[in-house]
Amino acid sequence: MKIFGFVPARMAASRFPRKPLHPILGRPMIEHCFERAKLFDHWELLALATCDEEIRLFGESKNYTVLMTSNKHSRALDRVAEAVTICNHSVAENDIVVCVQGDEPLLGPDLIEVVIKPFHDDPDVDGTILTVPIVDEATYRNPNIVKLVHNLRGDVLYTSRSPIPYTNGFSLDLGAKRVGGIFGFKWSFLSWFTSLKASPLEIKESCDSNRIYDHGFTQRIAPMAPRPYQSVDIPEDVALVEEAIRNDPYWGKY
């Protein structure tokens, strides 16, 4: 299986406009994401997928491969699927397509390994999703953060911005998890998924993975070991990332 990586980014994020180029320790957020993804050694291709000229110009100034996609996509996975079709590489049905979200500046090559591992462990796996342990109640209650629940085999049942699994009092024993913003798919599965219209639970929760579960399919969790990990959903998250990134093992390697 060849491994293709795509970093989708757009300037019109509703909760944080112009987010991809917002500085984190003096460097645009998208640069942190792309450079950290580059530390993974096994890409057949790693490309930036965008519909915005500003992002294209920045990516090309850094010698990134940049793919210009439609400005009609509101979901990252739809943008990634289009990028596969225009990347000038032959992508086979069982090749792995990895979506590395452009708002995950604390990602690392080890987490990409985690997302790919289930495909090697179980040939029946069609899709994976990085899961991050929730270690505090504020994260558990935060509607900007997508949580998930899964069955005993590790197949995701549902994603939600509500606190799930629900409890009156949060504790670590709950084993709550959130989505980490790195997704892996066999190309045949991603192609099928993005051919479908947005589903009811996807629309209600604003979580595109629910499109998969609405149609009776699933993703396998790819759990990361506990460590400081912060996505950027709103402007206030930038300070949290800047605090964490200075002590991150990959800071200073790019």
What does this structure look like?
The chain has 254 residues and is an alpha/beta fold. The protein has helices at residues 29-38, 53-61, 76-85, 109-121, 137-141, 187-194, 200-205, 210-214, 237-245, and strands at 3-9, 23-24, 27-28, 45-50, 65-68, 96-100, 127-133, 147-150, 156-160, 177-186, 220-223. The strands form two sheets. Strands 1, 4, 5, 6, 7, 8, 9, 10 and 11 form a nine-stranded mixed beta sheet that branches. The protein is globular and about 50 Å long. The two termini are 27 Å apart.
Structure summary:
By secondary structure, this protein is of the alpha/beta class. The protein has 9 helices and 11 strands. Strands 1, 4, 5, 6, 7, 8, 9, 10 and 11 form a 9-stranded mixed β-sheet that branches.
